[in-house]
Amino acid sequence: MKKIFFVAAFFIFVGLNSLLAQNLPINPIPSYNVQLTSLNTAFQEPGLHGTPTREKREMDIVISSSSTYSHDVSAKVWVVKDNGSIVLGPFRAFMDQVLAVQIDEGQWGVIIRCDMDVTASVWIE
User: How many other β-carbons are positioned within 10 Å of the β-carbon of residue 36?
Assistant: First the structure.
């Protein structure tokens, strides 16, 4: 049982590292109506140098598309803190619906992966 756990943990770690190690185009948070032109797009909150923040916050992500597809448009979303040391997700964001993720203080980012042409908006409340 321990062996299976360690093997599974290894594959999860390697998969997340390969996802986060890619050179992603990084957009600031907040960002509105950013065209996702690659499979993976990143958003990063600016550095908070000594500025106190609220302990609990909410990150909102919305994807949309001007094209009409015969099936549901969705994207995989990972919310990351401290350059990937904490990863929340993957979540599934559906077209024109707000995906709200509870976050705490610190510098957070978002990685969005979608196989279709969509736009994304990311902000923190």
Answer: 21
Please check whether residue 6 lies inside any domain of the structure: no
- Interval 68-88: pLDDT, tens: 665 678 889 999 988 778 899
Judge contact between 61 and 44, C-beta under 8 A: no
Q: Please tell me the total count of domains within the chain.
A: 1
Domain that holds residue 58: 25-124
User: What is the chain written as a DSSP string?
Assistant: -HHHHHHHHHHHHHHHHHHHHS---EEESSEEEEEE-SSEEEEEPPP-SS----SEEEEEEEEE-SS--SS--EEEEEEEETTTTEEEEEEEEEBT--EEEEEESS-EEEEEE-SS-EEEEEEE-
Judge whether 5 lies within some domain.
Answer: no
In a domain, 4, yes or no: no
Per-residue pLDDT for 108 more than 80? yes
CATH number at residue 40: 2.60.120.380
